[in-house]
């Protein structure tokens, strides 16, 4: 008799995939070597904006090892190929063609102008230096406000404007709330602030890469991508390749964070070059190319107005954004601010709301989704303005939040944006966070330091957040003019020996899918965790999928697996009844066994799988297969939430910041694997804190990226971050059978405003109400001496230019 297995969901299992990922015993795209494979390198423009007068490739063609050199006219003679944008947010949105290679004009520093193909990567890169390109420089457009000013030079002359689109939401017009202008004009208190979301680089561990093999009857592409299924469809549409003749494989991928969600010009180049030469071609970028030409994230100017009564009841919120698209529309970058539009109201009962976003073209690398995609920007703005409102009202910032947030007994709650939050308990998460943080004790210490004039001041930062996870409901996405659905697909194959193969359309790049999915299937089918194999990332074996982004893997892809498992059990039930000689209604299924009610007569799912394989004794008309698939399209987003508290010490003589403690209590619904949840939170915190204190791109006046290496673009190491105190509360989601809510982006979304609020709180008595991110010591020092600094504050030079000048751990200096 089979022993009863312990439940897997909720168990902190170490990840199955770690053995190969951590030791490097796996296949990354750059590990792939095919017979006769050639190597591709891309020549990139040193200018941000220029006409291409001429390109002389003759010397490069005769360089050692070079097989071919291509320009735009060679790859795209008719100039008909344009990179796709899947999100036309308005009917009149401008859509300048982004070429595979620039033909007549370059619009950002790093845009590709020629390709060299050689027998080795070194030879290809050496030959790039032999290409002679003559440019005629054009005016550079870097500032968003200047870009949309009357008479501004244009990035794309044929578009007539640097404004791509204007998108608006108004609660009065939508019938979801009141008139925000009336709320503001009649308010007892109005606070206005401008916040700057700096431009960030998704610094994944593995640079982008792809290999294309055109031999045989089917083209195979390996790519370090988050979206193999979308890449296949978009490649077919962009290049006219029959979709059934293209196979896309995402092998193990070393991180993405949204930075590998695009359909890349280099992928299209590789396909075109491989087809022209009839040989396999590999392209992999250097880290400097990643910084220069891979898409960037964030980059917004946020003008926020909030109104309230004198006793702290918020009455209205007005948001006006400028969003920098860069030189072109990304795959979904046009819609990133729209994802944030529905989250500025956050956890609060705001009765009137207006949002307007202007997407702007500049001569910079394009922006697209980066971890959180719109929701971190929204959370930052609302959590910063709530602190500013609390100061204006003379209230404790937590007291103000509690006065305005949705109470647990009010769920489900329809927000001023029309979204329905299904469940939550902000009170419980906050109470636990306050206890772990010693909120009252730290406030008392802060008062003592302030009164004594201590040169090291203490600040407390708060972020009480929610987000919409599981980018999915297809009807909602359709209403927003998104170019695809949000469903996810899964298949389950029952093998004759009782083992299980699960095929998922969610393509992992470090999230632990193989472990978590195995736990789900083990519980659903009553099989051992070790008996489940997860197959993903290959459009030939996983023929349907919408891939991985927007914290959708578990709450959409995981539920598709649950639905497929339910179908396996349903298929097995009549066979079990036949084998046990009973009616189907007399059977109950639990722990992998069908048991006749009231007896000990049973048969296991593994026994049924073997019986199906033999097919010797099946009921009449029953197909000899338990294999099942399912496609799940949720009816709603899921809404994780949490309370993050940060204590920061600021040396008022140097501007140095030390994160003394960081506590977060997140509610992600039911956690399938708490260990993975904690890892996701830790990673997210590192990225959010990095935005607050360390990261940010800079360009010089000519549009050259001056933070193009890790010597200039600051990333924190573990030594630069504090030890995090993490915990969870649990209010299960009511919109899916697992009760899960998603966790992949929570830490990033919540942490940035918590840290910035802490630093501002520490130095507010110096007349500071904002400091532009990243909060370098120089910027903090300057703000204390000259008052607040917002967008356009002091730069990253001097004391702000070195990682060693920031102490976030109490260790390295």
Content-based structural category = alpha+beta
Task: Kindly provide the radius of gyration, computed on alpha-carbon positions and rounded to a whole number of angstroms.
Answer: 28 Å
**CATH architecture grouping of the largest domain:** 2-Layer Sandwich
Q: Give the low-confidence spans.
A: 791-813
H/I helix tally: 22
Query: Termini, distance in Å?
Result: 62 Å
Strand content: 15-25%
Overall number of structural domains:
3
Oligomer: single chain
Q: Largest sheet, if any?
A: 7 strands, mixed
Helix content: 25-40%
* CATH homologous superfamily assignment of the largest domain: Aldehyde oxidase/xanthine dehydrogenase, molybdopterin binding domain
Biggest sheet: strands side by side, in what order? 3-5-1-12-9-10-11
Number of strands: 28
CATH class annotation of the largest domain: Alpha Beta
Mean pLDDT: 95
GO molecular function, one term: oxidoreductase activity
Domain Aldehyde oxidase/xanthine dehydrogenase a/b hammerhead: 23-139
Biased composition (Gly residues): 789-804
Keywords: Molybdenum, Oxidoreductase
Could you explain how this protein is built, in words?
With 813 residues, the protein is an alpha+beta fold. The chain has three domains: 17-23 and 487-632, Aldehyde Oxidoreductase, domain 4; 32-138 and 205-255 and 260-293, Aldehyde Oxidoreductase, domain 3 (Alpha-Beta Complex); 297-471 and 636-786, Aldehyde oxidase/xanthine dehydrogenase, molybdopterin binding domain (Aldehyde Oxidoreductase, domain 4, 2-Layer Sandwich), CATH 3.30.365. It contains 22 helices and 28 strands. Helix 12 (375-393) packs parallel to helix 21, helix 18 packs across helix 19 and helix 20 packs across helix 21 (746-763).
């Amino acid at each position: 008799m089979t022993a009863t297995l312990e439940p897997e969901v909720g168990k902190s299992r170490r990840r199955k995939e770690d053995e190969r990922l951590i030791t490097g015993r796996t296949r990354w795209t750059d590990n792939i070597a095919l017979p006769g494979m050639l190597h591709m390198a891309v020549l990139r423009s040193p200018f941000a904006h220029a006409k291409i007068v001429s390109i002389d490739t003759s010397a490069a063609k005769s360089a050692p090892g070079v097989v071919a050199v291509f320009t735009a006219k060679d790859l795209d003679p008719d100039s008909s190929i344009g990179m796709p944008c899947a999100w036309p947010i308005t009917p009149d949105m401008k859509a300048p063609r982004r070429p595979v290679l620039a033909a007549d004009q370059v619009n950002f520093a790093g845009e590709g102008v020629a390709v060299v193909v050689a027998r080795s990567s070194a030879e290809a890169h050496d030959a790039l230096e032999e290409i002679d390109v003559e440019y005629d420089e054009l005016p550079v457009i870097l500032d968003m406000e200047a870009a949309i000013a009357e008479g501004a030079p244009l990035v794309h002359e044929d578009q007539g404007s640097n404004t791509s689109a204007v998108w608006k939401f108004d609660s009065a017009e939508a019938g979801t709330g009141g008139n925000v202008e009336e709320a503001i004009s009649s308010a007892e208190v109005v606070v206005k602030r401008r916040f700057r979301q700096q431009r960030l680089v998704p610094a994944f561990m593995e640079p982008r890469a792809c290999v294309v093999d055109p031999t045989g009857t089917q083209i195979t592409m390996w790519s370090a991508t988050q979206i193999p299924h979308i890449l296949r469809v978009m490649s077919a549409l962009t290049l006219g390749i029959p979709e059934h003749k293209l196979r896309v494989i995402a092998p193990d991928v070393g991180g993405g964070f949204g930075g590998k969600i695009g359909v890349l010009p280099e992928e299209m180049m590789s396909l075109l070059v491989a087809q022209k030469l009839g040989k396999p071609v590999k392209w992999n970028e250097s880290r400097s190319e990643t910084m220069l030409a891979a898409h960037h994230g964030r980059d917004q100017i946020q003008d926020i107005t909030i109104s309230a009564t004198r006793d702290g009841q918020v009455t209205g919120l007005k948001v006006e954004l400028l969003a920098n698209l860069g030189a072109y529309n990304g795959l979904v970058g046009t819609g990133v601010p729209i994802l944030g539009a529905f989250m500025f109201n956050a956890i609060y009962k705001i009765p009137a709301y207006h949002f307007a976003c202007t997407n702007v073209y500049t001569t910079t690398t394009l922006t697209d989704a980066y971890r959180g995609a719109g929701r971190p920007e929204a959370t930052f703005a609302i959590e910063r303005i709530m602190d500013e409102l609390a100061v204006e009202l003379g209230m404790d910032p937590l007291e103000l939040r509690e006065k305005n947030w949705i109470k647990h007994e009010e769920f489900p709650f329809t927000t001023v944006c029309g979204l329905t939050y299904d469940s939550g308990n902000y009170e419980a998460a906050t109470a636990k966070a306050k206890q772990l943080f010693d909120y009252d004790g730290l406030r008392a210490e802060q008062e003592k330091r302030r009164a004594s004039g201590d040169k090291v001041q203490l600040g407390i930062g708060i972020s009480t957040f929610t987000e919409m996870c599981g980018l999915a409901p297809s009807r909602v996405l359709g209403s927003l003019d998104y170019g695809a659905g949000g469903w996810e697909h899964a298949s389950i194959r029952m093998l004759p020996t009782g083992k299980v193969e699960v095929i998922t359309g969610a393509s992992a790049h470090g999230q632990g899918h193989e472990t978590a999915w195995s736990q789900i299937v083990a519980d659903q089918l009553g099989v051992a965790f070790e008996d489940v194999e997860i197959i993903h990332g290959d459009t030939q074996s996983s023929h349907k999928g919408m891939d991985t982004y927007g914290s959708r893997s578990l709450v959409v892809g995981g539920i598709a697996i649950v639905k497929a498992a339910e179908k396996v059990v349903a298929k097995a039930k009549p066979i079990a009844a036949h084998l046990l000689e009973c009616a189907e209604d007399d059977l109950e299924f639990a722990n992998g066994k069908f048991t006749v009610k009231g007896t000990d007569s049973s048969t296991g799912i593994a026994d049924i799988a073997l019986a199906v394989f033999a097919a010797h004794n099946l009921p009449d008309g029953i197909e000899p297969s338990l294999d099942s698939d399912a496609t799940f399209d949720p009816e709603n987003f899921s809404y994780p939430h949490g309370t993050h508290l940060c204590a920061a010490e600021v040396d008022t003589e140097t501007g140095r910041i030390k994160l003394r403690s960081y506590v977060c209590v997140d509610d992600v619904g039911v956690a399938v694997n708490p260990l993975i949840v904690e890892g996701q939170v830790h990673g997210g915190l590192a990225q959010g804190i990095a935005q607050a204190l360390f990261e940010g791109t800079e360009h010089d006046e000519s549009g050259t990226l001056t933070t193009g290496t890790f010597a200039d673009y600051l990333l924190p190491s573990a030594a630069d971050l504090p030890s995090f105190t993490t915990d969870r509360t649990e209010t299960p989601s009511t919109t899916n059978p697992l009760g899960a809510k998603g966790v992949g982006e929570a830490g990033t979304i919540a942490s940035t405003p918590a840290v910035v609020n802490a630093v501002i709180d520490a130095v507010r008595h110096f007349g500071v109400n904002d400091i532009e991110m990243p909060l370098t010591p120089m910027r903090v020092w300057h703000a204390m001496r000259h008052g607040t600094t917002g967008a356009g504050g002091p730069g990253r030079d001097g004391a702000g230019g070195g990682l060693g000048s920031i102490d976030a751990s109490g260790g390295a200096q």
